[in-house]
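Progress report, Aim 2. The chain analyzed during this reporting quarter is listed below.
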Amino acid sequence: MLGLAVRRVTFPALLVSFALIAPSRAHGYIDLAPTLAKIISDSRRIAVVEVTAFNRDNKALAVKEVRALKGELSSAVMRQQVAAGRESIPRPILQWAAVGARAVAFVSDSSVLVCMGEGWYQVHGPTGGWYKLGADRPDLPLAYYGALSRLIEGVETMLAGRQVVLTAAAHGANDEAASFDLALNRMNIPGLIKVQRVRMSLRMPSTAMAAASAGLIGPGPVGPEDLPALTERLESPDADVRAQAAEDLRWLGDQAAPAREVLAGLLGDASPRVRLASSSVLLRLGSSPERPLRVLREGMDSADPVVRRSAARQAGLACGGAEPLADKLAALLGDDDEGVRVSALQAITLMGPAASRAVAALMPLLDRPEWTIDVADALGRVGPAAAPALPRLTRMLQAQTPTVRWAAVRAMAQIGTEQAKPAVEFLMQALPKATEVEGYNIMIYLSLLGPLAADAEPVIRSTRIKNPVLPSATLWAIRGQATFPWQGGGGFGRGPGGPPMGMMGDGGPDIARLIYECYFRELGPRLARHARALAGGIMDGSAGSVPVWGYRLLCCAPQESRSILVPHLSSADIVMRERAAVALGYMGSSAAGARAAVQAAADRAPTQREKKILLWCLRQIAQTP
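Predicted structure tokens for the chain:
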């Protein structure tokens, strides 16, 4: 019998990019995050390990080495304590630790780093025959994050002295907006973690930050150039290869459409994992939903808890395409298998507003300490439809545990509505004495609350934080004045004691632009009134000289922006026609509803110059977002 005691591990709670938290560069422990090369070099033995026993009641796990990647294979069983006392087993371990599940163990003299592919943890020992869970290592996904099979192949390739392309959690990119990810706890939600492709070898630098710029290829685990190879892998005789190929295609979005027919053929595959992954991708592609939904529903009804877990996970990854399954996922929150319950909760969290029918099932779970934070995050992701949960979330603002209080705040900020105003009072009291990171998070929560946070304006103005622009951006999001960020004035464009917009002084990036772009993207429809004002301001000239990035604000209310701009395509004034065409063009695919009107304007354009502008506009609209 396995027995136990230990600490908690986290699943990538990454501070992966500090576009808002550090104006010019990332600071802190992230600078020391090791590369995979460093981890390999520091390991005296590396092996693929397999779970041989897992006792949830005793919180104990046993693994054996099944394949040596570096050094000799050990025959000893590695017994691990994966939770202490009343602590819950960390969710990533709980979801992974089925008998037969595999990982890669990087063994040094006194500790072992275990990579499950999409998650890491560290154990120390052995002491008395047991390895004990170590401190959280949120830095390790910066070394690798992706499919376990690729990690194994990558380690072998690197040990052979060759270069390999692998995936790691994204960090350091100016437009990653990881501050929102951090503030809203997204980095603890599998499926929302951003990854990037990186060239890796044993010759790469020892820290991830140093290696990023030299080895970075691009976002995601695959690119459009990989489509032919992935389509071929869908027909591999190996079920794991087929399933992984389907998973990878999801990252390509609409660019995976040419593989739709092959994916549809896999809905009857003998492997449940292949069927479920293919169904999820097809739903993301907007294919006919009947068969994919049926496959996922059948998976959730399976007698095998491993299949139910996989079905729930794939439903979540289908996002809005799996909306008809929200009731089924809500029912799985009461499943006998804890891993299934966790997978269902994470799926609901991923689906966000599409899972609104699960709100009633989520609310009672707020009263279960081991579920409180994760359920609050799920409700926040659902958004305004989770308003019935606001009274319970308001009570959580008085919790003794800070993490519970902050979970309530971030949920209430995302849900909004008048009942979320208690969160504003909480934030007003917290801001003057907040830590640096809490201060940045508070600005984000207040911006999400928008006009509801109007009472917080004096506190925002009197609070000094290192970022010179964030308070102004927050005030702009809350107040919605007619002044636009690029115009300055009205208290916008700089924070208390900060430089004017765009003037970093050290040759660094235009942090103001990055912050406002991030706000446009993250706040979306919450900035609809700002978008309407901009559309009108473009046409009457009051918006000033709008930068290219400024036009993206129109996408926060695309239909309303189009309704203001499109009539001017028929104006007798060429200046008005060109203003409308340029604005619609910079809206990109968000202006798709105006395509016919733009084409008609191009057909009747009186000059070649005007026709060129309109044809450019059509090309911009046709681009994939």
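The two ends are 54 Å apart (CA to CA). The chain has three domains: 28-219, 222-367, 522-622. These observations will guide the mutagenesis work planned for the next reporting period.
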